[in-house]
Design a protein that fits this description.
- This protein has 237 residues and is an all-alpha fold.
- It has four helices and no strands.
- Helix 1 (7-57) runs antiparallel to helix 2.
Length: 237
């Protein structure tokens, strides 16, 4: 358990957790819509040979039935193009963002582990310094005095403490540097991610809307053309 975890890193983790959940929901919705659109594509694909076969058997209706087969094929191709684009430009990027949030959480966990290591080292360094100070002040514990009252033993322990303190100071400085670098990397990555995320999501949604509008326009045009063929066929009889 960290003692002095900065609030900004707690907020980073909470945000990554929340955003990851939203991306997971968005992905499930996109997959559900894509699944239903693929079902519709299969139905449209089945209509084409059905109308063609029917046209081959109905001489008088052959023109109209062929027009319907062409319509079904056009509707299928237009929708399939949109479905393929949705998979490439919505579902896959959403999955990547979901996985990226996991990477952010893993990086924060690694960063916390580094801070915990620094806190442990700091505590041990403080204890060693306090113990050395007590020795220098002549107030070391009775337990130690009872074990050895010789100046040599006292000096040996002081030298050992000094060596340990020097070692801990080096490790502490290295760990602190690593933590500062990790903090800077996290902040930089998060800032860059926030900027890129806004642009990406805007591009996804606007692109999806444009594709739906374009597909709708093409579907309407195909329906109107077919309707015109059918009207001309009826009026010519």
């Amino acid at each position: 358990m960290l003692k002095n975890r900065a609030e900004e890193y707690s907020k980073m983790y909470e945000y990554a957790q929340s955003f990851g959940q939203k991306m997971a929901v968005f992905e499930r919705i996109a997959l559900r819509v894509s699944s239903e659109q693929n079902d519709y594509l299969q139905a449209l694909a089945g209509y084409v040979p059905a109308y063609e076969e029917w046209a081959a058997k109905e001489t008088e209706l052959a023109g109209n039935l062929s027009a319907m087969a062409k319509l079904m094929s056009s509707l299928h191709d237009n929708l399939k193009s949109m479905v393929d684009e949705t998979s490439l430009k919505i579902i896959l990027p959403t999955k990547e963002y979901f996985l990226f949030t996991d990477s952010i959480k893993a990086a924060l966990t690694s960063r916390d582990a580094l801070q915990h290591e620094l806190e442990v080292i700091t505590e041990e360094l403080v204890k060693c310094r306090e113990e050395k100070q007590q020795m220098e002040d002549g107030t070391e514990s009775k337990g130690f005095l009872s074990r050895s009252n010789t100046e040599e033993a006292t000096q040996a322990k002081a030298d050992k403490l000094s060596g340990r303190i020097s070692e801990l100071e080096n490790v502490h400085a290295q760990c602190k540097t690593k933590l500062e670098e990790r903090n800077l990397e996290l902040k930089t990555d998060m800032e860059r991610w926030h900027l890129g995320k806004k642009a990406d999501i805007k591009e996804w949604l606007c692109g999806m809307a444009d594709r739906h509008i374009d597909t709708y326009d093409k579907q309407i045009a195909s329906l109107e053309n077919t309707l015109e063929v059918l009207k001309n066929s009826i009026s010519s009889k």
